[in-house]
What does this fold into?
Amino acid sequence: MAQLWSRVGPFTTVETVWPFVRPDRPALIRTAIATLLLTAVEISIPLLTRAYVDWITGDLRWYEQAVPEWGDRSLIFLLLGAAVARGGLLTWQRALAGGIGERTAARLRSGLWSHLQGLPIEKTQQRGSGRLLVRFVSDIRSVQRLVTEVAIQGAQDLLTAAIVLLILVWLNWWMAIPALLLLPAYAAIFGFLNPELRRHSRAARRRRTRLAAFLNERIVGMKVVKAQVREEAEAAQVRQLTRNAARRGSRLAESAATLQGAAAGVVTCSVACTLALAPGEIAAGRATGGTLVAFIMLLGLLAPIMRRVATLNRSAQEAHVSITRVKETLDQRVEVGAAPVSRRLRITGGHVKVRGVRFAGDDGSLVLNRVSLDARRGELVALVGSSGSGKSTLLDLLLRFKQPTSGRIVIDGRLITNVSLSSLRTQVGWVPQEAVLFDGTFLENITYGVQRLPSTATVQEAIRRAGLADVAARLPGGLEGSVGPGGQLLSHGERQRVALARALVADQPILVLDEMFAGADAAIGKSFAGMLRELATDKTVIVATQQLPILLVADRIYVLRRGRVVERGTHRALVRRGRAYPRLVATGRKRRSATKTRRQRVAPAPAGT
It folds into this structure.
């Protein structure tokens, strides 16, 4: 992170943010015009006040010809007009800047989301949902402040400060010396404290990110926390994380407060020195009472600017950290073929060939080692193996959620690495082990991702085949009934069936199922085995399972052990001559028998006993 931070400077910041700001160039021009006019009006007020004071004291001197006979009233009207104009211009400028910031944040969130969807699955899983959520909320909010506060407000402050200093010198160079000397002193203090402010800003942001990630994980896993009676331990952990975040935030606030105190001190010293020099200059005729008033008012314009330096610098530091993290995400390479390409996969035969595929994990260990298999249309192919044997990884490779280290995966003679991801995934149906549902209606979840809205008959048939007819009738509203956030109104098995119905509605030529029948009883296993056997008459069906009813009707079974295919054949052939397969079947039977016994023990006693 530190190395990446060292490479992110102002030019990199502009390079990263500008593509998202560029569509607002007309608004930027209007904002620049509003800023120039606002600066001119703000600086004109001290000068008009100087003229009015000199009019009252009768010391107009060289500019008395510019003021008409009723000059006192004209100056008052000009001051009132300047005040009204300042209010209007400030409103216009802030509205324009706020709009630019909001639209920039919206484009950045949309661009970041589009990029995240193109990243390999393991990249997003490594970051975790909590940290990615921080990118979308906190980090992009910091970038928004960079545009609206640091860039636009900072540009106005810099312009105002430069013009104020020039006018001070023009009014009386001797009285301007204190301000000219004390400003470098403030710059030295700023340069000394800025590295510390940057360090505390990075540390505070890291701790807030850890807190957000921790809370997100615990909210998702709240049932586990309660089941393991970990409420007090988790509360203590949250208290520790919040204390760490507060400690770093306090140090950041202390550094910013030091800069703000230094700014106030510099301005106060400048005013005091100006007051000390004023009597001599007025007595010598080089200054007037109006000049002194204008000096104090102009120094008053510098005071909020110098105080804002600390605030703007803090926002800039936080924005740089956020941009570093957003840029790190945007720089991640997307999946090969994620962008639309001309080569589209057209599945006609549904013949899947896997040849010598190897896949290594992040630590270099082989998860799959020279795996080969075949699956054709009209076949039901089963993958069997203990946990960690590589079944799910192999299915991930078929959908290109992961890329093989070596080897080839071919569908109908086409390498899947040479076709667009969209054409592959729209023709290969996937039913995951852990079904994911979204907050919406029963019908919306079943038809999610379907290219064309299916007919009512198609949906009803998918519901029937997936065994969801009773569920649809039970929900208030039927098909239009809500399943709740994450499908929480449905049971785990019902959510799996919705995922299966989703694949049935899509009617894709290849269907891949990953352990979705784990834990199902014999009756459910038989019903699903019959359904899969029926589906396999005109599809290529590949299923990772330990369910014996499905294995009995499978055309071919591949037994995986430690990432290798150690046996293959039908159930009957593998039971007769296999070694690993019979042990797996026996283990599965024992597990199902133990589960059945536990269910019988907890079953309610019949009435009247």
Remarks:
- The two ends are 69 Å apart (CA to CA).
- The chain has three domains: 2-330, 345-427+513-601, 434-507.
